[in-house]
Amino acid sequence: xxxxxxxxxxxxxxxxxxxxxxxxxxxxxxxxxxxxxxxxxxxxxxxxxxxxxxxxxxxxxxxxxxxxxxxxxxxxxxxxxxxxxxxxxxxxxxxxxxxxxxxxxxxxxxxxxxxxxxxxxxxxxxxxxxxxxxxxxxxxxxxxxxxxxxxxxxxxxxxxxxxxxxxxxxxxxxxxxxxxxxxxxxxxxxxxxxxxxxxxxxxxxxxxxxxxxxxxxxxxxxxxxxxxxxxxxxxxxxxxxxxxxxxxxxxxxxxxxxxxxxxxxxxxxxxxxxxxxxxxxxxxxxxxxxxxxxxxxxxxxxxxxxxxxxxxxxxxxxxxxxxxxxxxxxxxxxxxxxxxxxxxxxxxxxxxxxxxxxxxxxxxxxxxxxxxxxxxxxxxxxxxxxxxxxx
Length: 391
Ligand code: HMG
Known about the structure:
Blueprint (H helix, E strand, L loop, with lengths): L6 E9 L3 E4 H8 L3 H8 L3 E4 L6 H16 L4 E7 L14 H5 L6 E5 L5 H15 L4 E10 L12 E11 L4 E11 L5 E2 L8 E2 L1 H21 L8 E6 L5 H13 L6 H8 L4 H6 L6 H12 L7 E8 L3 E9 L9 H9 L2 E2 L2 H12 L6 E2 L8 E7 L2 E6 L1
Parallel strand pairs: 2-14, 4-5, 4-6, 11-12
Antiparallel strand pairs: 1-7, 1-8, 2-3, 6-7, 8-13, 9-10, 12-13, 15-16, 16-17
The structure holds 3-hydroxy-3-methylglutaryl-coenzyme A.
């Protein structure tokens, strides 16, 4: 079953940070076997923001190429999903107005529910476009995953923004109507207002993620979703990439199905390659996995893909879509790969210094020296007003 109006992702782009920390460096300094990070967690590196980068600079960099290509004539809504908010009241996407020349005739909102919020944005966009198929919705998922130094979560940090233009008659991915959801009040991962790093019960978070995945799948099927063997690929929310195989194995077990490891790898691994080097990007992570799948798979036209979104706390959603014929012409594979390769390696001492700077937010006036080589930067916070600059 598909939507009466074909709705989905017409364009998708991403941005990450100026710096990258190699997890071999982290392992050496923490006295950990690097295999734990590479094999146990499935992570090789993590993106680290420069002192003058935040979710707004990443969001602007991700959205700019989409707006340059498609213009803003039909853009009616911008939904920015994040759990790294820069203000308790003002929506972060409003800072994009001058940076991206957004029209004043757009509604702009920020959404929060841990890593899940971008999927809520996608569902809301479908509703808006169903009402008026000429409208376009820009979704930006932007986050910086930050845990305490020396904590178990430290090697799973990262940062990225993914921007998606959602339209009728999309060029890349057409979304199906059925969707399965699961929610519960769980204290597995959260970040109280006074903290810049997350509080996490790691073992509970993994257990809850797995339960939520199989429950969301059950609800998806109960609502008329496709059968498992209809899918060519599965994209999972990736706090670390080993989670994709673990979650898929768990899903199969709950369905009484047994697959060898290489069959599981064949349907999940292409969707993990970017995340392996970027780290967790919270709301952006599932959509970074979609980008990774599109950029690393052989022809997917007409193939069905399943998506599992998970946000701690917790809300989970399973949904699906079909890759559109000719989608490859609309990808930015070379730009995506260049962006990852262009990051500047950061030394371990500098990483710890930047982490501490970010963990102590500016409470008096702050001026930021230029640190990033990216296209947008935070220049100052004066009288609690943030100012950004297009470089
Ligand atoms: P930990 O205690 O460091 O790791 O924390 P571990 O001891 O459980 O080891 C991890 C894996 O590495 C294990 O494999 C080990 O066997 C393996 P598994 O049992 O999982 O298959 N291992 C090795 N493998 C090869 N060679 C070795 C070796 N040593 C060990 N030498 C934990 C892991 C994930 C708990 C930690 O990183 C953490 O707290 N992370 C943050 C929370 C998190 O990512 N939770 C995931 C689910 S919740 C979620 O996804 C939501 C989230 O994105 C937030 C949001 O929604 O906003 C986090």
